[in-house]
Amino acid sequence: DGGITQSPKYLFRKEGQNVTLSCEQNLNHDAMYWYRQDPGQGLRLIYYSQIVNDFQKGDIAEGYSVSREKKESFPLTVTSAQKNPTAFYLCASSRLQAGWGGQPQHFGDGTRLSIL
Amino acid sequence: GESVGLHLPTLSVQEGDNSIINCAYSNSASDYFIWYKQESGKGPQFIIDIRSNMDKRQGQRVTVLLNKTVKHLSLQIAATQPGDSAVYFCAEYTGTASKLTFGTGTRLQVTL
What we know:
The complex is a heterodimer.
Chain A: E1 4-7, E2 10-13, E3 19-25, E4 31-37, E5 43-51, E6 54-57, E7 64-66, E8 76-78, E9 87-94, E10 106-107, E11 111-115
Chain B: E1 4-5, E2 10-14, E3 19-25, E4 32-38, E5 45-51, E6 56-58, E7 62-67, E8 72-77, E9 86-94, E10 99-102, E11 106-111
Parallel strand pairs in B: 2-11
Antiparallel strand pairs in B: 1-3, 3-8, 4-5, 4-9, 6-7, 7-8, 9-10, 9-11
């Protein structure tokens, strides 16, 4: 079945530690996204990528980093500079937006990150 | 700034009744809209979408209505079932920004 796989489902971070969240898709989508979801709030865009080896900051990129070495993979690193990392992190993918008009984004089942 | 919002944070309906979830958007340049369903502990699931050149689109048990005059979007669910209980988000796409903006969500509770 085609889809988006996020791992791990739960993750704990110690003070001063960087952690990396995995996101893999087999939908052959060019674009991939990372969102953060806090309780009672909508999704906020962290980073997105429309092509391999290229990515752009979203609305809340500070304290996060990404890479896009392969089309199917878009890992997110939550660095120690992110002072409030506790949240539900969602990865999504879609066909290219620009030039195609809006396209639906398909989501994984998220990683819940907590502070120890 | 542009935003997508919802009128009702929680909607409670009886099983078998129809549900209507509303969404207001503020960016008149938005040209594509999506409704998502999110169950507890899971990622949002695509339900239905609509482009700005349409005012109505139907799927299986769901209908989305778009009123561009008043910048209003609604999701209608026919014969609501217990499995429809979830949080529903609307999202708008603005071509100039090339990104989706999500609302905060409405929780739908289906009572037996």
